Amino acid sequence: MANLATPRTWVVGETVSAAMMNAEIRDQMNVLIGRETKTGHITVSFTGVDSYTAPAVTFSGAAFSTTPIVTVTIPTTSGATSRWQARGANPTTTGFTPFFQSGAAGATATWSNVTCGWTAIVS
């Protein structure tokens, strides 16, 4: 995956054509648009634990070209989800394992049908 190019520095007195501007904008946008991204959500339930490994998530559609970065989000920070952290563990080109952990060791919680979102992206 290509990185964004260093933006062109225009020089005083230089004549800038529409073609030059279009090429600059097009090249930068093609890099941004070309990122491989997948999103989804899972429903999480557990009882009386301070960490939880959810069932593995398999990405729909084609596999990523390389291992993506995966983030998992908890939609609320009140009640049972307070002080909990989430991450996409062991990502591969075809999926990952959602992992949840209390921010306070030994502080157990019970979740019932908490919908959490995830995003996977190749940067």
TrEMBL record:
Domain of life: Bacteria
Protein name (database record): H-type lectin domain-containing protein
The species this protein was found in: Streptomyces kanasensis
